[in-house]
Amino acid sequence: MKNSLGKSVITFIIFSSISLLYGEGFTSKALLNKESAYIKEPVLLTFDIKQTDYSKVMFFEFTLTENEAYEFYRLDAKVEDRYQNAQIHYTYLLYPLKSGVIDIGFELVKKVTTKEDVAYSFSGDRDNVKRMTTTDSIIKLEPLKLTVKPIPEGTLLVGDFTLTHQVKTHEASAHEPIPFSVEIKGTGYPPILNNIFLSTDDYILFKEEPQVNTIRSAKHTYNTVVYPMAMSSAKSFTFNEVKIKSFNPKTQKSYMLTIPAQAFNIKPVAQSSLIDKVDSPAPIKVTDWSWIGTFLGYIVVFISGFFTAKSVQWHKKEKIKNDPFIEQINQTSDPKTLLRLLIAEDSKKFAPAIEKIEAHIYQNKPLDLKAIKKELNA
């Protein structure tokens, strides 16, 4: 009996909330891919809007309500462009953070205008863009309820992870830094560990910010987190075993990620080697101006280092930048779809592009869609 029921279950549509808002001129539907989850177990939420009143032009602003009980990320927002027939499909990744029954709230604003007002609002020139007039309504929606199960006590990571570590050497001189790194990879809630790697009475631990790379999708969240560190000590010491308790929601079982205990041999530095035998640097003579060249050299090194760091920082910002709105622009295949997308964004910087697309649609003027996309990506 259980097996036959299990085969007939459609995995995705387990828990849903459907709002029939024909009086508002549209319908909405919210779905969760599971009706219960563990703390920090990923949950997929979709929200669909479909216009039913075709006499008006409608735009929508939608997001989930901020709440301490969960965190969320928008993965996608697909707009099907049928003029005066808006259809939008939102996809969110959600992580519950507290056990119990939690409410997932929605914030939806409906913006109504007319076809004539859309054309009029962008009829001004580049320096005199006319703002589109809309009638805005805040739509009240019932929240979805999600049952959240607690994870075992002492759990630090939630997901399916592996751990590797690297130590450059197990022998060093007194106070010499020993590079040491830990890498955690796998799917699940980002494996960020706080205050687990600490200095002891035997050694000093130097830490940098963890290097986090997270790729989120509707299937899973894949993480690679590297913890770069270094140890330093005046005498030989043992790095004690570290155990990280983890929990896999799929198997509903706990497991341990382990960094084994390791011994480090530290060679003391002879006292005599710490005393300078040569007067260095030598006293500066009254007529010796060589220090100016050295000083200028330091300035050049400092400036070059500063701009190098800045260029790396700028490069990182450019690399990290991944605008989902630009991706939607690049995915559009016809002028009407692009027009609706730009108007919904309601930004003056898109006015020149909207003006060209309007001229193409309403006045049959030629349009290079590829060139327009290139301008919007600039």
UniProtKB/TrEMBL annotation:
Source taxon at top rank: Bacteria
Presence of keyword Transmembrane helix: yes
Transmembrane feature ranges: 289-309
Keywords from the named record: Membrane, Transmembrane, Transmembrane helix
Protein name as annotated: Oxygen tolerance
Originating organism: Sulfurovum zhangzhouensis
Taxon lineage: Bacteria, Pseudomonadati, Campylobacterota, Epsilonproteobacteria, Campylobacterales
